[in-house]
Amino acid sequence: MVVITEYVPDYEVFLSFRGVDTRNNFTDHLYNALLMAGIVTFFDDEEIETGEQLKPELESAIKSSRASIIVLSKNYASSTWCLDELALILEQKEIRKQIVIPIFYHVEPTHVRKQQSSFADAMAKHEQRMLAETDADKRSQWGQKMELWKMALTEVANLKGKDVTNRKETEFIDEVVIDIRRRLGVPLSNTLPALIGMDSEIRFISSWLTDGSCHTVDVLTIVGMGGIGKTSLAQYVFTLYSRKFHKSCFVKDINASCNRFHGLLDLQKKLHKDISKKTMLQANDVSEYTSMIGNVLARKMVFIVLDDIGSLDQLDALLGNKGLHPGSKIIITTNDASLTERCALFNSQVQPKHKKVSLNGLSETKSLELLCIHAFNSHMPEEGYKDVSKELVKYCEGHPLAIEVLGRSLQKHDVAHWEDNIKELKKEPHSKVKKALEMSIDSLPSENNKELFKHIACFFVGRDKDVSETILKACDINTRSGIVNLTNRCLLGIGWDNKLMMHQLVQQMGRELVRQESPEKPWKRSRLWCHEESFKVLKQKKGKGNLLGLALDMRMLEKKKLRETFELKTKSFSQMDNLMLLQLNYVELKGTLKNLPEELRWLCMQGSPLKSIPLDLTTENLVALDLSYSNIESFDMSCSNPKSHAKRQTLVGSLKILDLSFCEQLHTVGGFSELPALERLIVRKCIGLIEVCESVEKCVELVHIDMSYCYNLKKVPLALGKLKKVKTLLLDGCSSDESKIETIPRELTLIALSLPSSLRTLSLANNNLSNESFPMDFSCLSMLEELCLDTNPIVSMPNCVRSLPRLQKLSMDRCDKVISIEHPPCTLRELSINSSNYKRSLRKIKFDPVMSPLTLNGTSNIMSNSSLEIDGIVQIQAMSGVEEKILHSLGWTNLDFIIKNNERRLRTYIYGSGSTDCQTQMYYEFGIFSTFYRGDEIPNWISCRSKGQSISFTIPSSPKKLRGLNICFTFETFPKNDFCDLPMMKISNVTKNHTWIYDHFIEEVSIGEKCCLSWLSHWMFGPNEMKAGDQITVIISHRYSDAQVTKECGIGVVYDDDGSMEEEDALGYYKSWNHIIGGDLSAFQKTTGEYILDNNQFLRRSSGPYGFYPSFTDLQANFKEERLMFKAFSEKKSVCNSW
Fold this sequence. Notes:
There is one protein chain. The protein has 31 helices and 53 strands. The strands form 9 sheets. It has a 15-stranded parallel β-sheet with strand order 14-15-17-19-20-22-24-26-27-28-29-30-32-34-53. A 10-stranded mixed β-sheet has the order 31-33-35-36-39-40-48-43-50-41. Strands 1-8-9-10-7-11 form a 6-stranded mixed β-sheet, sandwiched between helices. Helices cover 28% and strands 20% of the residues. A hairpin with a 3-residue loop joins β35 and β36. By secondary structure, the chain is of the alpha/beta class. α3 (56-63) packs parallel to α4, α4 packs across α7 and α15 (364-376) runs parallel beside α17 (400-409). It comes from Helianthus annuus (Common sunflower). InterPro entries: Apaf_helical (IPR042197), Disease_R_plants (IPR044974), LRR_dom_sf (IPR032675), NB-ARC (IPR002182), P-loop_NTPase (IPR027417), RPS4B/Roq1-like_LRR (IPR058546), TIR_dom (IPR000157), Toll_tir_struct_dom_sf (IPR035897).
């Protein structure tokens, strides 16, 4: 099915407004309301005016709009751009009969008409600027412009407008939208339904669609499982923006259409006709239409949405292989993330720019809201339905289609009916949800992939990916490519801890496919995962050769009596000839293990009462044996039977994974000569373990060894040094305060020599190691990539760490005695310094100049009662510890009120690492000193003030040397949780066309309740940045305008008192930093004269596929820029040019 929107060559509405007054409140809300009504609106995202002439794109947008809405606010006339816009709009009113609606936003129409009050002040400043112009021609042009502006203000005030004074803004905006829609003739059908919980995705795609990239071809792929909202999101943004493009087309349900006879050909014909307005009467072949579509797309700028792409053939047939016209935008929705970049379009001469949006479902809050809309026609549950609503939301796990379908089906039913339905849903999913998910499963390229999907859904969700791969590969499943295919189709995820993750509904769908093999007779299915059904089948001895896998955990049975009395006889498995996967947790087995199927690959017997390995374990195909939490006392595959002196007849030479973790009675592990294929040895937290036999050297295939928290282990086997393939060695907590024997010796020189040179990961956490314990170098570990030194009493990063040439991740969490971390390897990508001790002593972190960007975890926990400097990046210190002469040099005097207002401390939150109480502190970065405190008091030495989120002023003349600017603003917070996002600050020198956007090192503060906060900062500007007569504008922007409101701004100029050397030296250290205002900010430059001062570009924090920032600009820097930025972080300049 193809949906076509006819070409409309203009905008329907142009919004003219003064950004500092209304951008982040009234005008933003009006803009969103217009979009929701399906009205294509031009909204200028640029906040700062550069140059004297109106931007060409603004002039073009005004001329190509059917209507203009002019928001006349207090500072509207202070902007020459706004006045130029106004004059051009009124000109278009006369020439093209453009509809004009003035809105008087807290200003009197009379003041606009007669240029009184703030409008008089603004015109007076323009006149002063005109009189200051020395060029006669320019002065004459200014005079002509001023006459035109005055006439325009008078004319617009005489038009029939709308006054917002004493009105509720939401009702007022609704009235404006209804009026403009009526006057434009926009039908009600254009009104878009709200997309719950997709605000950030809509903003991201809207920004992408309107980025003005007319020289490139842009492709965006929306990826997600079936029913997650891909089509709804694509349809939403298409409806909003399709009219802005010369040709636009939405091709819907492609995969389903292609299943019909000539389905793909019919889609091609329709698409070609609608983008070219021509019909090919003779062609009746997919390849011919592919060529013709390619010809059209190469000639015309288009906006196309291809919905539900299922294969490369479909994509190539609908996009051709000749490339697209510059400026074109393509949105693809699919459940296969790998398709887009493999299509022919990406092999064309000019490759498109590609971005990806992954939809992972709604939050719990948004899920509940969506459910209530469909079930109760409200945003909240009805009385008595709160608990069942939350239970249903939990079942759906953020899946929009499931929430919508189930909400509608339960509408007007009582609570008992809801409860019964939820119970049934847990057994079998709703048919509509099942159908949506089946499409993703059916798209898997092979039966082998589908079998892998069912195996994982039944047995391996939550298990380690590498372990699962090893087991399933032994089951003749192509795991490596299979897992990639499942992940690409959003059927599977890999967690941060390498665990397999699956959405609950997807897992239920996989299990449902197995259940449908025999709905009423479980023993005839290929897999049994339900513990109750497994119990019955085993008890009744009905298991046959069709079974591939079975799971039984006695703890999961509802009837406690059954758990206590059941003994499973191994004869129950005698007819299960093809059983490969067997889980028998906390089951007491009776009988010989010879009865276990020979095809077993995975035997999991957690909690087994066995005290030793049975004599008759002869499963020659077994690759994984899990005896964790069992009562086993000794594991030795080669020892003799102490009673019969007979050699064990075991045959487990294929065993690759041995898990004996948490076996508290285990004291020895040996007989490794019988395990030549062993790859993973796990004896974690075997607190009774005394010895791991030196015969471990026979396990030449070992890649992973975990001996963590084996407190009584006498020593680490020296034979480990002979192993050539070990990549991971975990020795956490092997030196216990309660143990008399040190597994990890205080002197690590010997153990370092015995470690495998092949190691990629080494963990020595919680071993009471001091700096003296470490050898001079770790050069023997040349392959090491991850090193964990958590919870050790080291006072600095050990010197040997610097000798690791490939180290990428270093963890020093809870090392509470650390004072400094200096010069880690240049290859490092992640440094973790989390701590629960708020009074830890870390004072300095220093990186080498050639370091690449890295992730720094845990900085929030070290701010309290301490000072910290990340060399060349940021310095943090308690205000009480700042020298008086420094405060005096900043012009900060009489600050007692700050201490008074902060008896109750704030909690800071930095880089996603958690929060901590902190006293009032001073932060320094980029040549900016700042502090924030409770209350709304601005220091009395800041005299220039303005209500609202912005302030403008002209730097006055002075015989003294300008040292910088002091800026203070107060804002009220309405936290939705305990946290309040800190705003961003922008300072612009309009005269010099320079702009600095500052995003603070602190990300959030926790305040717990509605309150007022104040932010005081000093910017070290020099004469190269600012001088007398320069016009300065300061704007405060909040990330979430509904949670914070700026109340007042203040600004003051700081001068040298008399230029004394003592005062100059007080800030000398800070001026020596390289990346400060007046220094080298090239790595932070976005465009000419515009700088993004954001250290998060280097010290990264986790984020989603798309971050949301205020509408200043896109703050993301590419990797090359990040490298440039950090290259000189530690390089200090003795003198900055600006000083």
